[in-house]
Write a structure and sequence with these properties.
This protein has 302 residues and is an alpha+beta fold. The protein contains nine helices and ten strands. The strands form two sheets. A seven-stranded mixed beta sheet has the order 5-6-7-8-9-4-10, with helices on both faces. The protein has a three-stranded antiparallel beta sheet with strand order 1-3-2.
């Protein structure tokens, strides 16, 4: 069982000696997020087209009737509780069920059970693929390009300074690249609520002029961090965000970084692990962790 963090209060935790930014009022935050996460008609159309294109490719098309039947039955009977990852479908690989309740405590519990969120045509669903890309924090290796970016001094890395901006930028890049399962506005709001509750975190990579040029966001479950999405002006910048994350997680005693199904993480030291093995090792690491807001430890980036 995922450690029961109190949803309110942990988002206000900061490292000693660092003055927190003045928090926006709830009304201000809602307005800011509505503006940040607003989908233009063009972006909405692009997101839907990406999902449809993926669903209509020959391999996915064979499983489409079964997928719709599965989702319609789940919606019709109103399945209670979270789905079991070990019962996830083979086609499409890992679809476990609908995500009806997107409240922070429920979603955090789902991630602690080995599930993660994807959106199908705007509908929130839980997934647990047959293989996951996993790495221990000490297994993540920096590439020569990442080393050059760090040594160059032109980029600045921060944590939890612009979670909403990272979510929006990562979603925009995914939609632009025609990648399926990108979150709609409702999904981005759900991740923002997880951030407010102290469960979700972001890594920001900024240029010298302050522009956001890369980063990642994900959910921490005890001593496990699940990378939900990455983005970068270049692939090396996206990799740099992951390397910076891993170095901090080493410092904080985390056990595992879960890259979900992103095969590209293999170049950084992640390896595919079968679902049964993943689900067997997960319970050992979902207590403890570092709830609340994260701040950069400068020494780990040198």
């Amino acid at each position: 069982m995922l450690q029961n963090y109190r949803v309110r209060g942990y988002a206000s935790l900061f490292s000693d000696g660092v003055e927190p930014e003045a928090p926006a009022s709830p009304a201000q935050r809602r307005r800011q997020r509505a503006e940040t996460f607003r989908e233009s008609p063009r972006r909405r159309l692009a997101r839907v087209c990406a999902d449809l294109t993926h669903a209509l490719n020959p391999r996915a098309l064979r499983g489409l009737p079964g997928t719709f039947d599965f989702l319609l039955r789940e919606k019709g009977i109103g399945v209670a509780g979270l789905p079991e990852g070990r019962h996830a479908r083979r086609v499409p690989d890992g679809l476990a069920g609908l995500a009806g309740d997107l409240s922070p405590a429920v979603v955090a519990e789902a991630y602690g059970r080995g599930l993660f969120l994807r959106w199908m045509l705007g509908t929130a669903t839980y997934w647990a693929p047959q293989r996951r890309m996993l790495a221990g924090p000490f297994d993540v290796v920096s590439t020569p390009d990442c080393d050059a970016l760090l040594a160059g001094g032109d980029l600045r890395i921060t944590l939890d300074r612009d979670f909403d901006g990272v979510v929006n930028a990562a979603t925009h890049q995914a939609v632009k690249a025609r990648r399926p399962y990108a979150p709609a506005m409702m999904g981005m709001q759900a991740f923002a609520a997880l951030h407010d509750a102290g469960f979700a975190h972001s890594v920001e990579v900024r240029a010298r002029n302050g522009a956001l040029v890369g980063g990642l966001y994900g959910i921490a479950c005890g001593r496990v961090f699940v990378v939900q999405a990455r983005f970068g002006k270049t692939g090396a910048i996206a990799d740099l965000a992951c390397v910076a994350l891993a170095r901090h997680l080493r410092e904080w005693g985390f056990d595992l970084i879960d890259g979900c199904a992103e095969a590209a993480l293999g170049t950084l030291g992640f390896a595919p692990v079968e679902r049964a093995e993943h689900l067997s090792i997960l319970p050992q690491s979902i207590s403890g962790g570092r709830p609340g807001r994260w701040l950069v430890v400068p020494a780990v980036l040198k």
